[in-house]
Design a protein that fits this description.
CATH class of the largest domain: Alpha Beta
Number of helices: 10
CATH topology of the largest domain: Rossmann fold
Distance between the termini: 37 Å
Strand content: 5-15%
Largest sheet: 5 strands, parallel
Order of helices and strands: EHEHEEEHEHEHHHHHH
Radius of gyration: 18 Å
Shape: globular
């Protein structure tokens, strides 16, 4: 890429989008071609603008974005996606890479790190913190994700439901957030109880809240 690479910013916080645009507008290697604050806007912008890169928050309107990450990767396979998220990297980075991301950067690392990450992606490299790289290297031999032991067996959707439970949402609210039926969410809750050893709905909710509180989820 000899010309400025076109970057799409996908984040539901206007202040984050503004900050990223300010940083990128000062660079000659990158130019912002569009912004999106929701999954619908993200799909529309990718289809219309075909960006070279996307800076992607995993939680748009409270939703986990792993499914959308896969969808956008399928829609524009050449687009290099950098996840820029507050979600725990040891839990979500490996899954984001599996979904098509090329980099994962925690928001608390500082916005200036975004340029470093994008430059790595532009060189054809992947980008992740040293902690994520060590964890993924150590887990490669066993073929297991570097998650806390009690979360290893969860599917992406189960992880989504558990996180939303941990934020205090009920079954109806989770169903609406993930565009699922209440019956389907109820099934996921029962699976989570079995996998996490919770005997009651209250125990499951407390378990989910503990994962959130300790930064594991």
């Amino acid at each position: 890429m000899s010309e400025a690479a076109r970057v799409l910013i996908v984040d539901d916080h206007s202040i984050v989008r503004f900050g990223l645009r300010q940083i990128l507008d000062q660079e000659t290697q990158f130019s912002v071609c569009g912004e999106a604050a929701s999954p619908v806007e993200a799909r529309r912008e990718v289809e219309a603008r075909r960006p070279d890169f996307a800076i992607f928050d995993l939680t748009l309107g409270g939703r986990d974005g792993l499914g959308l990450l896969r969808e956008l990767h399928d829609l524009q396979p050449a687009m290099r996606m950098l996840v820029y998220s507050a979600q725990p990297e040891l839990v979500y980075a490996p899954r984001a890479f599996e979904a098509g991301a090329r980099g994962y950067l925690m928001k608390d690392a500082g916005i200036e790190k975004v340029l470093e990450a994008l430059a790595a992606l532009r060189r054809g490299e992947r980008y992740a913190s040293d902690a994520v790289q060590r964890a993924m290297f150590q887990s490669a031999a066993s073929g297991r994700l570097p998650l806390p032991a009690s979360l290893e067996s969860l599917s992406d959707r189960e992880l989504q439901v558990l996180r939303l439970l941990g934020t205090g949402l009920g079954t109806a609210e989770i169903a609406a957030s993930l565009s699922l039926s209440m019956k389907t969410v109820g099934t996921y809750r029962e699976r989570l109880k079995l996998k996490l050893g919770a005997e009651t709905a209250l125990q499951l909710e407390r378990c989910a809240a503990d994962f959130i509180r300790t930064g594991s989820l």
